[in-house]
Amino acid sequence: MNRLNELFKIKYPIIQGGMIWCSGWQLASTVSNCGGLGLLGSGSMYPDVLRHHIKKCKQSTNNPFGVNIPLLYPNIEEHINIIIEEKVKIVFTSAGNPKKYTQFLKSNGITVVHVIANQKFALKCIDSGVDAIVAEGFEAGGHNGIDEITTMCLIPQIKSIIDVPLIAAGGIGSGGAMLAAMCLGADGVQIGSLFAASKESSAHENFKRKIIESKLGDTQLTLKELTPVRLLKNEFYEKIQNAYNSNYSKEELINLLSKGRSKKGMFEGDMKNGELEIGQISASIKNIESVENIMSNLINEFNLTKQELLDL
Q1: Is 145 within 8 Å of 228 (Cβ atoms)?
Q2: Cα(263)–Cα(235) distance, integer angstroms
Q3: Mean model confidence pLDDT for the chain
Q4: CATH assignment of 10-202+301-310, given 3.90.1640.10, 3.40.50.720, 1.10.3720.10, 3.20.20.70?
Q5: How high is the pLDDT of residue 144?
Q6: Model pTM above 0.90
Q7: Quick count: other Cβ atoms within 10 Å of Cβ 273?
């Protein structure tokens, strides 16, 4: 049996990334109902909003779901208390030190997974006692690794030094890519961008259309001085580039970002002034599909590609 299926009690080793402004209860519960693991993206939620989404998820699916907590965001301890109170059993942590909360969460009966982008943090995860690791290549959207290691290079590197289940993320948008990641040593995959553009995503329709209209080369990893993030190029992205050309200080870059830019773009639909976080795989997404179709296509293509390889 697949180790992720066993760990999370899910049918397919497919995890929906817990993305800010995209991953509300409707997306997470639908992915879980389709046999994957849905995640709520708590990084864009106030504590009372997170509780609301957890309750709606529990009403909408009898299958397991989890919450993604970016450790660099405020309200972390309030979020953790709500997760415990609401008896959520799976937490994915990211963008921070896994040692801070892993044992506390596990002591409350929670399965803990941490997202990393290099071997150093993978070893920190093992020391912290996580139950599984997400290894995310720099093709991914949102907050990213500073070293720019691609998923195909990263997965075997991480596999070679850990024995817990390994989840591949970054640039995965098809059943073929899922199979490739598993051939490299992953037990399953985490997919973000494909679900960000789904019908059930809580992202603004303008953002979804921007995703499916994007072409190869339309995203760029930037803001390494703060927290590396992959963005679709727009007027706000050009402001960032102009800031670099003008030798902005770190404080000036922070000030440029400190205006609710991600909410403005991904949730409110301002395609000019908003921060548009998405992965490189966006160039391959051509339609706004339902989660049911996305999951079905992933599994069918995975099985077909696997059979074609066996027939060679």
Answers
A1: yes
A2: 16
A3: 95
A4: 3.20.20.70
A5: 79
A6: yes
A7: 14
